[in-house]
Amino acid sequence: MTKLKNLDIILAHGPELSAGGLDYYQLGLWAASLPRTRVLAVNPGLPREELLRRLKAFLYLGEEHRVLLAALDPLRRARLLIQLLLQEIGIHPEFLLTLDLQEALSYPDAKACSLKAHHLIGVAASMLTRAEPVGVQELPVSPRVLVWGDSYAALKAAVSLAHLGHPVLWAYPGPTPAPLLPGAPVTEPPEPPVASLLTAADASPLISKVPKARFLELEGQVGHFLVKLEISGEIRQELVGGMILAPELHLTPNPKPLADHFRIFSLSELERRLKEQEKIEGLFPPRDGLLQAAFIGGDSHPLSLKRTLKAISRLQTQDPWQVALFLRDAKVGAPGLEAALEAALAQGLILFKVSEPPKISLTDDLPQVSFFDPVMLSREVLACDLVVLDEVYRPDPDNHRLAHLLGLFSGPAGFLQKDNVRLLPVVTNRQGIYVAGPGRAVMDLDQALAEADTAVSMCHELLGQGLAFAPKGRAVVDRGRCTLCLTCYRLCPHRAISWDNRAVIHELACQGCGTCAAHCPNEAIQIRNFTDDQVVAAMATLDPRLTPKIFAFLCQNSAWEAYQAAIKEEGLILPLGFIPLRLPCAGKLDIDYLLRGFTYGAQGILVMGCPLDNCRSDQGNCHALWRVERAQGLLAEVGIDPRRLLYRPVAANAPRDFQDAVMSLLEILSQGQAA
Ligand code: SF4
Ligand code: SF4
Asked: Could you point out which of 33, 65, 412, 445 has its C-alpha 20 to 30 Å from the C-alpha of 624?
């Protein structure tokens, strides 16, 4: 049980001591009756010096104060007060809690208004008097960074890191770097600024190149990753503080070519031939003075179509080629692509938009392309001198293995970043491991280089020049309670837990989501300032006069924002007994909170987390939903209508969805009362 601390409440009011239904004088009298509490009512519009004088008189300098600042729209109206408290009085930022009383003002009668204000202050006070500061610590880390892959993004990252003074281990699987220019022929050299990157990497004394490398193992945590690599058959261990992953894309012919037929080329092969010889019709004896080429596909990605159209354009300059292009879906989203397609059409390109991929067969050693022509509504066959197959940009096939070794959640297509908007652009679920450019998606060169820069600046900010700043004591293991069951180790989405003879949380890697705390069977982990003690104390403040009683457990990354916006922007009037409780992530929800809520007299409980695939800690929303479902089963067993416990996902910018969820629960509760 946390020892309660003293609390100083500042009620910031306007020139009058009452506003709407709120009487600050009465509110102050009530607040002063709370245990271990003192109250100052002050007009934040007073001159700065006068405000400071009153604050100094109220808050004795040198003492540790916990200050609850309650006002209407405090971040705007009491901005000067906040500034003085933090900068002049020196209040620890974690001990200054601002409370917006706007929600209380939304009730039409003065009694409801003051009851709600009492309750909002009561909940905030119960949290703040139990708050413990999360300190900041400086941790020594290795400034050395592993850059993995030989894409231009990897090359840019290596050079930029070295430029910032980081020693770089640049490892890639091939004997020499073989970066691709996305959307360009494989034979096209890069433009000068990019071309000079290779020279810069060669010249930098801080970059150690490691060709023919294979990633074998990873131990340790951000700041001290121990990487085991196999290099030309030898095993090497390297210490690095962080990593930037940018493995190059692979080009895969689509569909697979008929076994090496001399008239069926992949796009790369055609590009090489076009580079080697000015004209390629000499390869094929013309039929009736005309050569027919068919390009199949090109629609896997706008960058593939860009390459295809470049090759078509080269071929069209060579009489007597007639070119047909078969597309299922013309993705002309890339800049200049629509114009390139129109130019090719103007040069005589015949475009077939087909619903099924054409079939390729051989007759008398000549490729035949058969397809259903949606214009003629008939199956057609085109005899071709040359068939060119699209090449799909695919992620490095080794990515799955790499993601597994590194403990990363890989994306659905085999990239190294999960499809989750919270991770964009370069973050992974592991602190200190970033993914850029072709490591996370197919993208053009400009975007890949920009992402490399972003990853470099995040890495630099994290590792500095060998010192990292980390929270101190945010997630705490009670070693006396821990039985080393390793549930937390298995479930931590950020891989921040290891163990000696008890679970150990790595403070630089931990994101404070609370998933571990909610799952620990021995309640051995607490998330500071979201402790069980604080949550239960806040629930216990429920005033029996406030009805209907509803506890709402809201993820601070989404639902909490939506709740605030619903009140401020949508003018939502919540039921008087609606008690919002903030969680660091929905994954922190403990089933005990839900069951206890009903024993405290809640009529309904609402749990809200981020939408699917939008959780910052990967599956916090799913964990919350599973717990709600389990609790619903238990409620049904003891005869409580399980519908009184409702789970809803909500995005931070969707206050109306928040409102809908509240209305749905109220509807269920009213049905229950009617029954
Ligand atoms: S889940 Fe709890 S008891 Fe199990 S290892 Fe982690 S801290 Fe220890
Ligand atoms: S709070 Fe979240 S990130 Fe930190 S150790 Fe627990 S599960 Fe991992």
From this structure: 412
